[in-house]
Amino acid sequence: MQNSLAVIDRLIREHEAIRQKAAGIADLISDEGAVKLLGEIDAANLGRLLELLKSTMKGLETHFNFEESGLMAAAERFGDRRLNTAFSTLFLQHEKLRNDFAGSIRDLTQLLNERQSGRVGQKQARDTLARLNVTISMLKSHAASEDKLLHELKAALEK
I want to staple 79 with a disulfide (CB 3.0 to 4.6 A). Which of 10, 75, 119, 155 is the partner? Predict the structure, then answer.
């Protein structure tokens, strides 16, 4: 049980770090940030955004793998049916988030390549940032939902 509590506490801390990274990305692609990014389609800013996304995706992959391997056993052992179903559903979202982040990285890489050749358009750049904004919103919502479940599981373990 102590190991399960340690896993839960680690995941809660990681969710806070994920939310902070997501907020940083959201700020960069917000209306004001997007104007800076898209004003002249600044390759340096797009490059920083791309590196931030790659770093975030690497961290998410590690987090998702740990969560999927370390948490499900505790949820199955100490959680009820509703909690287990909720975790299973959220774990399915991991694949969508992985695919969406990979797609955003691919799109930003393409934008950077086209920027260097002078062929990138504002609409394409705005569409890419809009899709990324949806992904970031989904990530924040996902982390909040998991946090709620983690606190429920933790309470069940501490009974």
Answer: 75
Phi, psi of 121 (to 5 degrees): -110, 155
DSSP string, 61-89: HHHHHHHHHHTHHHHHHHS-HHHHHHHHH
Among residues 133, 96, 128, the alpha carbon closest in space to that of 110 is found at 128
pLDDT tens digits, one per residue of 107-143: 988 888 876 666 666 677 778 888 998 999 999 999 9
Structure tokens at 89: 């559903």
Nearest to 94 by CA among 67, 130, 55, 75: 67
Helix (H) or strand (E) holding 52: helix 43-70
Query: What is the value of pTM for the model shown?
Result: 0.85
